Write the structure tokens for this entry.
Amino acid sequence: TSGSVLVVEGLDRLSRAEPLQAQAQLAQIINAGITVVTASDSKEYNRDLLKSNPMDLVYSLLVMIRAHEESDTKSKRVTASILRLCQRWQDGSYRGLIRNGRDPHWLEWNKEQQQWETIPDRVAALRTAIDMFMSGDGAARIVRTLTERGMTYTQSGKNLAVHLYKIIRQPALIGIKRIEVGGEQFELRDYYPAIVSTEEYAALQQSAETRAKRKGKGVIPGLITGMALCYCGYCGAALAGQNLMTRNKRPDGWPMDGHRRLLCSSYNTGAGCEVSGSCSVVPVERA
């Protein structure tokens, strides 16, 4: 709010974006009536001080240019380092850790052995989920079954249907880590311990693809649900659609607007969300 004071170690801590963007951000803060103080050199930036000493504005721009150049240089060095590690992995000269992106929740890095190891409980839960999926069970039933058995394949302990659909698509199941570095794609084979065979993975993808083709072919396809667009604000699970087919219908035969509902998939399957109820999907789709 106006009259407040924002203390930062230096202007480089305020932003390391491109200089023009960083200075625009600083100007926005100052125009809001806030005084910016840099602890490293005890300089103050506000409207009155910049009017009396406009050279401070030039100084701030120089600081931001240096901060952006340093950040850009570090970023390039990190990218180059990861790129070299990926190339060495592919030619067989490196078999260590490559820090890039998220790694599977069912694995952990053993610092002493310098290798990935499976977490037995999570792998058992994931294997159960995969077996049930291949037997024709849907994600909702799988999540409910695992929750009832006290099993989980995630670090958070929550079995969410939306997570399961993402996991069964991951090549990490057969030990592959996919990385994009500097616009170049890498597929690092045998990076992780595989928990399914290549044949099982191929069958799993075929089953998932077959089910995906059946989505959205109902009488009333969902515009929001099933596309990772709408989530529960209480637990973060995907929202599911529900069409209540009652005798009260519109003249065209479709259900009334209030009978098309959104509800939390986690609560619906008993997977952890404590907030019950649903809301009409119509105003959400219109928005």
The first strand starts at residue 5 and ends at 8. The mean pLDDT is 84. Residues 36 and 124 are 54 Å apart (CA to CA). The beta strands are 5-8, 35-38, 43-45, 107-110, 115-118, 177-181, 184-188, 239-243, 260-264, 278-280.
